[in-house]
């Protein structure tokens, strides 16, 4: 009997009678991170990393029953030893390690092995069974170093400002937005935030995070804003809220932007391939480095990646069907 299986509610540990990132309401939910495909509404009790708590309260309401854990701290539920380890995906994101009768399982949630300078860097957790996401599990996804992309973003902002244009950067409000903000060259101009981004920053400020930028409120005089950068979620693309900031140039910041055509389909001026997930190479390296003999792939190109692993490594790989999908909301 496997320690973790998938049933109609989510990823289930029968021995401990709890779920990880369940998609239907259950009693006890271990949560890897605050993105909406992993942290859903309706659980009786949530257990997440300390830094996910303000996000959970912002998104699900302040009256939730929630317990925070630190990275590396272990606790038990019905004999199953549980600990959370940095996943390097967004602030608070965790891999969840389960150990029972000498067998170790790790579920990655979403992860990225390249440090982003904002979230706690990914920690390699040795295990026997490794359940890995594979959002970018195709060889075509090889992301450039993010430091290069941030300098391109700053260069582009600078030249837009010189031309008298504002710069709009689209990125998911939780994760991408903070990473961009942490790397903007504030000497270029002013930084403004869409409400969705400002709300997340405000929640994170309660636990000591600080990011630059002014909440762009509806009553603010937009005509005076010039040469600034505006950070907004992808859903703000084409909204009347933005029209008042004309003239502007706009760019999508997402791992999907690596593919030609993705930018055109989004009808923006530019695309920056900035991701908070592992690319192809990072996924391969992580799967091997864990030392796991059994690997389960989910959340992405699981069929292809599972076949690739079975054919190229001495490992048993299989597909685990789940409902995790950052899709268009996260626009990773
Ligand atoms: Zn995520
Ligand atoms: Zn996800």
Automatic annotation (TrEMBL):
- Fetch the SUPFAM superfamilies from UniProt: Metallo-hydrolase/oxidoreductase
One example of the protein's molecular function in GO is:
RNA endonuclease activity
Which top-level group of life is the source organism from? Bacteria
Q: Which NCBIfam families match?
A: Xnuc_lig_assoc
Please report the name of this protein according to its UniProt entry: Putative mRNA 3-end processing factor
- Tell me the organism: Sphingobacterium yanglingense
């Amino acid at each position: 009997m496997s320690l973790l299986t998938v049933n109609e509610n989510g990823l289930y540990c029968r021995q401990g009678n709890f779920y990880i990132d369940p998609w239907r309401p259950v009693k006890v939910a271990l949560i890897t991170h605050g993105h909406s495909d992993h942290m859903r509404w309706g659980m009786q009790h949530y257990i997440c990393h300390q830094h996910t708590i303000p996000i959970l309260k912002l998104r699900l309401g302040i009256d939730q029953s929630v317990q925070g854990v630190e990275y590396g701290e272990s606790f038990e539920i019905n004999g199953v030893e549980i600990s959370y380890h940095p996943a390097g995906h967004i602030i608070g994101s965790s891999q969840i390690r389960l150990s029972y009768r000498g067998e170790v399982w790790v579920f990655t949630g979403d992860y990225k092995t390249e440090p982003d300078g904002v979230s706690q860097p990914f920690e390699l957790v040795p295990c026997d069974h490794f359940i890995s996401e594979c959002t970018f599990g195709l060889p075509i996804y090889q992301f450039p170093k993010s430091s290069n992309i941030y300098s391109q973003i700053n260069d582009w902002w600078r030249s837009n400002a010189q031309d008298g244009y504002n710069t709009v950067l689209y990125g998911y409000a939780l994760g991408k937005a903070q990473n961009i903000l942490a790397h903007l060259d504030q000497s270029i101009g002013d930084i403004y935030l869409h409400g969705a981004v400002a709300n997340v920053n405000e929640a994170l400020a309660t636990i000591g995070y600080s990011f630059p930028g002014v909440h762009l409120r509806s009553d603010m005089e937009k005509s005076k804003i010039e040469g600034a950068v505006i950070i907004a979620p992808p859903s703000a693309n084409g909204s009347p809220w933005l029209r008042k900031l004309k003239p502007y140039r706009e760019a999508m910041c997402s791992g999907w932007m690596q593919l030609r055509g993705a930018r055109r389909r989004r009808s923006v001026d530019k695309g920056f391939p900035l991701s908070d997930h592992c690319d192809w190479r990072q996924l391969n390296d992580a799967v091997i480095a864990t030392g796991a003999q059994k690997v389960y792939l989910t959340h992405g190109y699981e069929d292809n990646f599972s076949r690739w692993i079975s054919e190229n490594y001495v490992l048993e790989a299989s597909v685990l069907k789940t409902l995790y999908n950052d899709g268009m909301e996260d626009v990773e």
